[in-house]
Amino acid sequence: MTRTARLTYQGGFYHIFNRGLEKRVIFKRDKDYDKLLDKLSQLIVEGDWIIYAYCLLPNHYHLLVEENKTPIAKLMGRLFTSYGVYFNKKYKRQGPLFQDRFKSKLIQKDAYFLEVSRYIHLNPYKANLVNDPQDYPYSSLREYTGKGLRKIINLDHVTRLLGDNKTRIEDYLRFVKEGIKLDLEEYDPFINTKDVIGSAVFATHRKMV
Q1: Measured between alpha carbons, how far is 36 from 9 in angstroms, rounded to an integer?
Q2: Where are the domains of the chain?
Q3: Of 184, 18, 6, 5, the residue nearest 106 (C-alpha)
Q4: Count of alpha carbons within 13 Å of 13, Cβ hemisphere only?
Q5: Which pLDDT tens digit goes with each residue over 105-132?
Q6: Residues of the chain falling short of pLDDT 50
Q7: pTM score, whole prediction
Q8: Which of 49, 168, 64 is nearest to 106 (CA)?
Q9: How far from the centroid of its chain's Cα atoms is residue 143's Cα?
Q10: In the chain, what is the straight-line distance between the N-terminal and C-terminal CA atoms, in Å?
Q11: What distance in Å separates the CA atoms of residue 58 and residue 29, rounded to the nearest whole number?
Q12: % of the chain exceeding 70 in pLDDT
């Protein structure tokens, strides 16, 4: 069966996600999470992608990525092919680790960055892995607060989307925690089947590009 072509373009803003084959665990140990994030850090230096948010969960992952000259497929291919080889060798298994190729949704950047990034950052809390989303070690939220050890996120790009006020990071953290009491199913890519997340005009225009 022929695969559907991805909707991509230079400057496109994407929610990238996937889960383990048959929803199996893809990160068993702390070193597994570290392995993938270290590789992502390396690729960001080598390429021209911008990562705005990420979160790795035991059996799935989320990334919020802006594509520039180099297609996101190249980033995802190098990242997860490398990780799949590592995981299979370490745990003495064979075959695909993920459910087919990575999945992506085109996001209307300025209008929907806050909502989609909040959904991503709340995943560990919603999965009962932490009591406070800021405590989760494999999420970009720690980088937002300055407590993360990695530099995958370029905060200059993030803060441009958050506004000019001096308390923008603090305001964003409050915004994230307010989402704890909300139903964010609309932004769950495993439930919402839309390929484009944005206004009706944006969605229609991008499908025509």
Answers
A1: 25
A2: 13-208
A3: 6
A4: 19
A5: 999 988 899 999 999 999 999 999 999 9
A6: 1-6, 208-209
A7: 0.91
A8: 64
A9: 14
A10: 24
A11: 9
A12: 90
Antiparallel, parallel or unpaired: β 13-19 and 60-66: antiparallel
The single-letter DSSP state of residue 158 is H
Helix (H) or strand (E) holding 30: helix 30-46
Separate counts of helices (H) and strands (E) for the chain: 7, 5
The length of the chain in residues reads 209
- Confidence (pLDDT) at 22: 95
Q: Which CATH class, in words, describes the domain spanning 13-208?
A: alpha beta
Q: How far is it, in rounded angstroms, from Cα 107 to Cα 102?
A: 16
Give the C-alpha separation, 11 to 22, whole Å.
33
Q: How far is CA 91 from the centre of its chain?
A: 25
d(Cα 161, Cα 183) in Å, to the nearest integer? 23
